[in-house]
Amino acid sequence: MQELDILILGAGWTSTFLIPLLRTHKLSFAATTRDGRTVAGSQTTPWTFDPDETSQSRERNQFSNLPLAKYVLITFPLTSAQQSKTLVNGYLETHDKTPTPAHFIQLGSTGIWQIPQKTLWVSRRSPYDTKNARAIAEDEVLSLGGCVLNLAGLWGGSRDPKTWVGRVAKTKEDVKNKKSLHMVHGLDVARAIVAVTSDWEKAKGQRWMLTDGFVYDWWALMVGWADVKNANEGNAVAGEPSEQARWAFELMGEEKVWALPRSMGALGRCYFGREFWDTFGLVPLKARI
Questions:
Q1: FRET pair for 138, CA 20 to 30 Å: which of 17, 73, 123, 250?
Q2: Mean pLDDT for each 10-residue chunk of the chain (289 residues)?
Q3: What number does CATH give the domain 4-159+182-215+269-279?
């Protein structure tokens, strides 16, 4: 069986950026989806993870039809330590490759750090919600020698943050409660994944926080996108700012904010998103939404 560089389990939105980059780097890969559809011009293998499978047969289990790979990227969330063990150990036992077994990369979310913190700045080393189901599964992947990339808000391609405003802030009170926002572009997620596979010794056993290095102010974005038509506004009057922009300006007066963006202190939680890029000698290509 030929060994591939990367096996992508669950080729979704991220893979629309990752697969073209893998081709550029001439890295061999395979990918799975539930229905075997084509993603970024590549045919995928129909496959669905069954966390409850108990079969121990190497020839007849859910991993037996998956190709051999140096790195296995898990793009979908695992929600328990047992699920992580089932996937990692099941694949390794079915694809017995010594002395260099496959390495696992789990994609997660920076949402695990959305708990009360003692400091304004939050890094990958800050306390996180250890009771969060995804965090529990990620911890197990780490204990098994894998790497976890906790991703900030994802944008790029079909995901345009400008269109989110009407959904996340329907009232003035919603706008008032909006503070910091952290993002990362799909292309930079793809670059991070390739970087991890290129320098595994730095990556293994580590949880990384992945942002584009910016802390965005929701009010500043709403005002900056005042002329962007929101999906729920219907036929907006040409030349009129959005309701969210009006509300943000009203709140600036009420809360004595002289100019945007607001101070880091006013924004609350701020992610220190530079450490990954510094460690791997990279700079985001798609920073600043």
A1: 17
A2: 92 98 98 97 97 72 94 98 97 85 97 95 97 98 98 96 95 98 98 98 98 98 88 56 97 98 95 97 96
A3: 3.40.50.720
